[in-house]
Amino acid sequence: MTADLIGRLRQVVGPHGVIGDRDGMAGYLTDWRNAYRGTAAAVVRPGDTDEVARVVALCHGAGVAVVPQGGNTGLCGGAVPDSSGRQVVLSLTRLRRIRDLDLANQTITVEAGTVLRTVQEAAAAAGQLFPLSLGAEGSCTIGGNLATNAGGTAVLRYGTMRDLTLGLEVVLPDGRIWHGLRGLRKDNTGYDLKQLFIGAEGTLGVITAAVLKLFPAVRSRATAWLALPSPQAAVDLIGVLRDLAGDRLTGFEVMSRQSVEFVLRHATGARDPFDERHPWYALVELCDSLPLAGLDAVLESALGEAFERDLVVDAVVAASPAQATALWALREGISEAQNHEGPSLKHDVTVPVSRIAAFVAGTDRALSEALPGIRIVTYGHVGDGNLHYNLSKPVGGDDAEFRVRAADLARVIYDSTYGFGGSISAEHGIGQSKRESLADYKDSLDLQLMRGLKQVFDPHGLMNPGKILPG
């Protein structure tokens, strides 16, 4: 990239808006796990949508590729540049204004660099709820949540970011701004263009702002940690809870014993809620906007039926918000705790809920045959069929040897997922990690149509190249 272009970019974003030295760029060139690493010609940090548009237009005119980046908390390398040193990392973390909060319309309009927790807090201050919740909510940004169609722990009731978004503002690859910030719940005037950008990981344009749905604040909740005999018990238990609680069933997380053991071993202050070990656990939460909704009675009734049907072996119901927080910490600490056990091969798959038990049994068996002693860390949002199927090396195993097996082990999981009618990516995206695998598990016509969209929006291939679409 020429010094002239760097100079013109500085004119747009100011002298402190362009980072060109190696040390200054370091944090932008790798993901938080250090699993993916690249180089860049520069990191550019615009302060508003107009500056984003001007930066993208300049790069487009010079034939320089742009890699949009938010909180950089992704797990698939989708926001990391390649190794050429010719790409520009476009950091959106300065776009963090909350532009509007419309109580009558139950919407909040925020910029892409706004941290998720900030949106949650702004909604709460207005007596409302923005329900997206995930482990990285203190550092991930709304733009990244949209780019990967984040789901989180409340999908069962509220859906993914696709369901939570009414409108977008997007800078297209040539620098034009698509003004789609409409807070309409009904707009039947043709194609729903915003859906093209949600989940596209910045390959079709740069999301700069969004109109998001708000919901009534939660004023009562009931939380329980349950010991289960099997994944099938978890599937059956969801049916019991849905029948009795309806849409008040907000969260249902399942975890293998291996997952919980890592948290108990490495997370400060973590304690096992039970005296005995159990093969599987579930974290259940009911929520209501009414302050006296009788959720404890509903949960007690559901658990009574579950015990009668041998779906639950033991149960702890949180008696205070602090206890509920401690239970959630066991679930949310899994990903970080696993990193202390050496290389963590993370997989995010989804299968039909009715086939979860058979999928887990078959996949566990195939993995153990492929690598005896492998430690399988399975947890996720069973209510929507999404399992995080992560792998750790056998006890005493060599890190390098385990990393060499990553592709083979991934194929075991993906072949099984495909065989059960599932998807190799539920909510983490494709990025770099699953890009080449996509060709093996995505219908050829699907890929043809996706490539056609890419050609329409980004004919020169300058918007986050090397992500999603196989080479």
Shape call: globular
Q: Count of DSSP helices?
A: 18
Mean pLDDT over the residues: 96
The fold-level CATH name of the largest domain is: Uridine Diphospho-n-acetylenolpyruvylglucosamine Reductase, domain 3
- Second rung of CATH, namely the architecture of the largest domain: 2-Layer Sandwich
Written overview of the protein:
The protein is of the alpha+beta class and 471 residues long. The chain folds into four domains: 3-91, Uridine Diphospho-n-acetylenolpyruvylglucosamine Reductase, domain 2 (2-Layer Sandwich), CATH 3.30.43.10; 98-216, Uridine Diphospho-n-acetylenolpyruvylglucosamine Reductase, domain 3, CATH 3.30.465; 220-335, Alpha-Beta Plaits (2-Layer Sandwich); 343-441, Alpha-Beta Plaits, CATH 3.30.70.2740. The chain has 18 helices and 19 strands. The protein has helices at residues 3-13, 22-25, 49-62, 116-125, 142-147, 155-158, 161-164, 194-197, 231-245, 257-266, 295-308, 321-332, 334-339, 356-370, 399-404, 406-419, 435-441, 444-457, and strands spanning 18-19, 42-44, 66-69, 88-91, 98-102, 107-111, 128-129, 165-171, 177-180, 206-213, 215-216, 220-228, 249-256, 280-288, 314-317, 344-345, 348-350, 375-381, 386-392. The strands form four sheets. Strands 12, 13, 14, 15, 16, 17, 18 and 19 form an eight-stranded antiparallel beta sheet that branches. Helix 1 runs antiparallel to helix 3 and helix 14 (356-370) runs antiparallel to helix 16 (406-419). The chain is globular, with a radius of gyration of 23 Å. The two termini are 24 Å apart. The mean pLDDT is 96.
